[in-house]
Design brief:
Elements lengths: L4 H19 L2 H28 L6 H16 L4 H31 L4 H30 L16 H23 L4 H21 L1 H4 L17 H4 L3 H9 L4 H32 L2 H11 L1 H6 L4 H27 L9 H15 L4 H29 L7 H8 L4 H16 L9
Length: 434
Amino acid sequence: MAQYRNLFLFAGVALLFILTGVFQSWNLSLNILNLALLSCIMAIGVNIQWGYAGLFSTGIVGSVALGGLAVVLISAKPVPAGWAAGGLQIVEALLFAALAIAFATWLYRRLKPGTNRALALALYLVVAFFIYRLLLDPGVIAVESNNPAQDGNIGGLGLNSLVAWPVGALMAAAAAWVIGKIALGLREDYLAIATLGIAEIIVTVLRNEDWLARGVKNLIDLPRPWPVPYEVDLQVNPTFLEPVANAGLDPVTASTIFVKLLYAFMFGLVLVLLVWGCERALNSPWGRTVRAIRDNEISAAAMGKDVKFRHLQIFIIGSAVVGLAGAMLTSMEGQLTPPSYLPLRFTFLIWVMVIVGGSGNNWGSILGGLLIGWLYLAVEFLGPQVMGAITAGLPAGDLKDHLQDTAAHMRLLTLGVVLLLVMRFAPKGLIPEK
């Protein structure tokens, strides 16, 4: 019976989505499924870092945000007036910043350690920062002054957002390389604090730099990835309408379900390819090496393994996977909303998925992503119904109103209870590492 345990677990989670479709709506069920599939991809990225190498990163939200930014830079409509106003000046300022950082690195390596090196670098960086701002600020002001109600940014390349998916992975990987060079030498608790702080810096930049992605004004009307059509186009397409009419379905409902099914197929295909690659890597000499480093760094280093390089490699790969999911999420939603990048949703919830599913096991990450993804979104509409049934016998008054108002927080209570139960009865997760 134990050999069918995992199959029963996945069947139980699948039943949750089926029941949601039967008793609520299939549109809602598929919407939750798509978000859960994206969460599965993020969970695999975290599992690569923690389950494979023991790297405790709390900066997941930063990689997700960079993936979303990639969709803006690649797929958003171009804003020629913004570029003409100050786009080139912004590029020049960014190039100057990159060269200044490179020169600072060179100085750090050439100068002898000591107080003089610290003072010289501090003075150099202060001067370079002021020069950078002198170059950047006029360009930013010019761009953000260009039709700020509708544009106020430099725009993107106008390409299909499918192209932005690998770009999102590359941007997250590049940021992970920089972060890894700085923070991977730290102890676990310091690494967690450092990655959390850097992720908040990334999100804060997205929220405040309007020239980049309109900040808190949000950037909408991002194109969908090929070949996903728009519902309104399907509703006037005879090729689509004929079979829908023959089946006696409503064209509006059928079009929305079709689009969500297409997204589910695309996300599922990416997830399958990702799991296939991860399983092959995990069962290769490379996978055995990184797990040996995770279990005992000192012994692995004594055997000639480059621990720091492997940690950096794993950190980059995991962040790239999360960045890929972030790009997929933004392209599905068709908009970039920086205020929505919250650590609760895109860091700690993903960690709950990995812990509940089983750290170190790719299939456990998928199970945790589907289960917690369903719970997190389903409790939002089930909570008020459950609380209404609980308080049905209470007389009208402050107590009843207070209990009904707390229904919105039931998702946090539910996740906490599930996490406690799993840690009590299955401390290694529902599908433990083999």
